[in-house]
Amino acid sequence: MTDPAPVGPTDTAALPRRVGVVGGGRMGAGIAHAFLTSGCDVTVTDTDQDRADAARERILASVQKSIDRGQDVDAADCARRLTAAASVGALEDRELVVEAVPEDWDLKVRTLQSVRAVLPAGAVLATNTSSLSVDRLAEHLEEPARFLGLHFFNPVPASTLIEVVHGERTDESTAQAARGWAEALGKTPVVVRDAPGFASSRLGVAIALEAMRMVEEGVASAEDVDLAMELGYRHPTGPLRTTDIVGLDVRLGIAEYLHRELGERFAPPQILRDKVARGELGRKTGKGFFDWPQ
Prior knowledge:
- There is one protein chain.
- This protein is of the alpha/beta class.
- Helix content is 44%, strand content 14%.
- The protein is built from eleven helices and eight strands.
- The chain has an eight-stranded mixed β-sheet, sandwiched between helices.
- Helix 1 crosses helix 2, helix 7 crosses helix 9 and helix 7 packs across helix 10.
- The relative contact order is 0.11.
C-alpha cells in the first residue's frame, strides 16, 4: 500500500472534503453536525464502538431536527457521509481532525498524539479546548505548524461563532485556512493569540463567576441576575443559565485553570464548588442554578 499523498490547507474558502472528529459527546456531535450539513465526509471516533454508534445516531437525529426547522440538506445523503469508529486509525485519510474530548490535560495530550500519529503529512489537527494552552499542547506534537485551536460554541449547530486560536508555532496559512473554513460553515471567526482562556472563555467565566458571587451573597436571585444581563446588556442568555448549559463541572475546571494562570480574580466561589460536589452540574443532570426537565 502506497503512502497517501500529503494534504493540507490549500483553499481558504472551501471546506476540507474529509473531516474527523474525536469524541462524540455534545460538543463533538455538534461539530460533526456542522461539517456534515456543509457537505463534508465526516468520521467520528469514540472510546468504543457502542459509544461511537450512539454518537452517530445523536448526530443524525440533530441533522433531522435541522431539516425539520427548514435547513436544506438531505438526511440520507448525510447518513452516507457519516462514519462512526472506535479507533483513531479510521482517521488516516482525514484532511482536518478536530479533537473534542473532555478538558483534561493528560487526556488531551494522549488523544492529540495518537491522532497525529495516523494523519497524513500536512493534515490539520485542531483542538476544541475552551481554555487550555494551544502552545503548550503543541510542544507535545509533531507538525505544530499544522495545529491550532478551533473553539466551537455550544450548541454548535445554532452558534454563529468559532474562536480560531493561533499558536506561536501555527503556520499563518493554517490559521488563514481555518478562518475560511469557519466562514464556509456559516459562522463568524474570531482570531485570538494563545492566552489563558483565550477571549471568549476568559470574559465569559469572569462574568459568570461574579454572577455566582452575587447569588452566594444574596444580592439577587439567579433568575434576576440573568434577567439583568439579558435585558440590560442584551445577552441572549444570562451567565448562570449559560453555565448550566455548558456544565458547572466544565466551568469549575476552566475557573481553576484560570485561577492558577491569572490569579485571584478567577478563584471559583464556594457556591460553584458545592453544587459540583452535590452533582448539580446543570442541564445534563437536571439541576444547576436552574431546574431542567429531563
